[in-house]
Predict the structure.
Amino acid sequence: MAKPYNFKTIETKWQRIWEERDAFRVTEDPGQPKYYCLEMYPYPSGKIHMGHLRNYSIGDVVARYFRMRGYNVLHPMGWDSFGLPAENAAIEHGLHPATWTYDNIAYMREQLKRMGFSYDWGREITCSEPDYYRWNQWLFLKMYEKGLAYKKPAFVNWCEECQTVLANEQVEGGRCWRDESEVIQKELEQWFFKITAYTEELLEGVDQLPGWPDRVKTMQRNWIGKSVGAEVNFPLVNGESPITIFTTRQDTLFGATFMVLAPEHPLALQLGEGKADVQAFIKRMRAEDRVVRTAADTEKEGVFTGAYAINPLTEEKIPIWVANFVLLEYGTGAIMAVPAHDQRDFEFAKKYHLPLRVVIQPEEEGLAAEALAKAYEDEGVMVNSGPFNSLPSPEGREAVVRFLEERGIGKGAVNYRLRDWGISRQRYWGTPIPIIYCDQCGTVPVPYDDLPVLLPKDVEISMKGGSPLAKVESFVNVWCPTCRGPARRETDTMDTFVDSSWYFLRFCNPHARDRAVDEPKVAYWMPVDQYIGGIEHAVLHLLYARFFTKVVRDLGLVPHSEPFVNLLTQGMVCKETYRCPTHGLRFPQEIDPQGRCTECAHPVEIGRTEKMSKSRKNVVDPDDLLKRYGADTARLFSLFAAPPEKDLEWSDKGVEGAFRFLNRVYRLVDSWADELSRPAAPISFNDLTVGRAVHQKAHLTIKKVTEDLDRDFHFNTAIAALMELVNVLGQFELRGDPAEEAERRYVARFAVETLLVLLAPFAPHVAEELWERLGHGSSIFEESWPVYDATVIEREEILVVVQVDGKLRSRIFLPAHAGEDELRTAALEDSRVQTWLQDKQVKRVVVVPKKLVNIVTARL
RNA sequence: GCCGGGGUGGCGGAAUGGGCAGACGCAAGGGACUUAAAAUCCCUCGGGCCGCAAGCCUGUGCGGGUUCGAGUCCCGCCCUCGGCACCA
């Protein structure tokens, strides 16, 4: 008797079996090709959300697919468990960050298990555990030794909301990446990682990543921001040391009619000495919020210092200004202003009536300084430029560099936007920075033998008054490792992006007690063959991880330079929003089945489709999905609804469609299982009659699904192919003429087994269950991925499309081996084609073998 | 402003190296089964014309072009999403 598809029983059963068999544990095996499949590990914020579900469903298909293809697959999972939300929760709910974090981990681990993901849980890592973060400290000390970790006072991004510093990468449009509150600038003494030591390698490496999406590569290139130009020294009129400027347009040097310094530039105060307006301006600018000051639409503002420099090429005396639009951090903090050829300089010159000189002429028209409405920034021919006149600007740039270098007044130079990575955080729930300050010995690194510097448990957490660790005397007070005198510990903790910068290495040897990375194991597993995660880390995490990989390579710990061979950035999970005119945004459960607000019964408006988030109240809880439809449906829908790299629009109806499909599969196999478990002798394809088409379809499906997975993981079309196969099987009669019975059984069994094996990576539980139902004693995941038979797919008849003058006029069936001449003849003889050829003369016949004939005509 | 992605039925999306546009799913309509409903199964489903049907015209953001043939290639626009942005 047919049983209904009871996903709950099936899924619990197989999850238990997998766990009992430790089915996904892996160890290094040099005899097998390895495959490292990694999804970005989650921050344990409480519950798994739809983005995780999608991310991990994608990863699980990849992992299970490669396992079936015979690879030794490393597929680990862990927790990015240090971070600010734990502290916020501690303040709000009075829970210790550790309690909150570990409760969340326990819950989320169960959720992941209920999704049936094939992780090697024996490799689980938790960043907030001393056995993980001690290696953050170890790596920090190694970097400190090499000068790659250093402390300096700097203007840093301060988030008032988080009460801590943020790295440049963590500020998005002047706002905190986490809570979107405004970021201000503060001058603080901070620890930095010298990512700029690897700038050029990080940039060039981007070109060696064919498996990364262009988008991400572009974003990394933009972030690194390489500019090629020149540094030029402008002597001061009163003879003091010259001002060095950076420019990418040294071909416009003859047009430099004034100079501008950043307000923070040391010379600015000096040159403006005794001039009250200058001092006041500088003071005002330094106090002003830097995000506002450096915004593109802020009005340009400046003041003349009273001092002059000499343009080294024209030898003219030019005034030196201080202005808000010049930044100390970029280049040398000083610029030459060429108002005719730089829009910013142009606007500034117009405002303060400074002179313009045209030194680049476009090919066609002639520019006149007085008539310019805006700066001419394009290429052209150099004019008013002494010996360089009539040189095209690109060559001009090279010629000017040579000229500067010959005379020792400048040189070719490269500038980058990338800054060093500020890692100090004035928060509790992070890795303590292993540094001790001693009055006698200065800054002393904690000896390696004293690691880990444990994060104390008893801490009062508040968002006010600086780092919580500073108030823990037992932590702060320490004996200096060098002189044994009293000393103080560093109380800042590390940016939690440090943890994720190398966790992929730790997964290779999660239990190594005496080292961060076990070199032979890492050498076996690394690099990550497929990395999967959200686009939001295109710069942040992915840049830091690349940097760390190069650092550990130079420490001799790993042989490779790039951590992730292939990167898949999955799209966001989106859903429409609902708004009630009186009660604002509504959660889906706050709307009745008639589409009305549960508060006031007013119909809700359907708003635009946006990324799922609590603030937009358009979230769907994976727990509900799991309860109603099960893990296989949840997985299948998230993979079917859109290609992985595109945004996925949530659809309750679509989920039901996925559920219906699995039900159909279940019913189909279940209803045939008894008969199919009786043996059926294989039949040669040539002898197949009633089952021929079904058998071909099974082979075609193998081909299609395999190719779709191999070609950028097109899960949606692979699943569509499985649906087609099920549709075909749904039409197939297992019982018929007794003479055909053996063939029908053979063909059906082959097709059903093929279907289940191909479906297994997507919907593993139901595939296992039905596989067992067919009488198999072992797991379906012990099957190897099927291979299609090309001779079966090879059709004996093919459909040839016939066009007349490019328009489809007829379709004809021809033997597959038909040659060009046969195609042409058959097409011309076709009766439908004939009617279209009346009154026309055949001018030309284009024949595409096995596909198409196009008859080109001329009117008679 | 610069850089990158995208624009295909009512909707999500297919079309892999220029060769049948709309696979698969959802929604919708009709039918079967049922006392009824759900579930399931079958049929229709870009637009238009004619219609019993066969068929014809048209259609992939817009305008040009290349080609026997363009959703796909080229040129010029429009719209949209994302990144960067006073970066010298």
Summary: The longest strand of chain A covers residues 149-159. The first helix of chain A runs from residue 7 to 21.
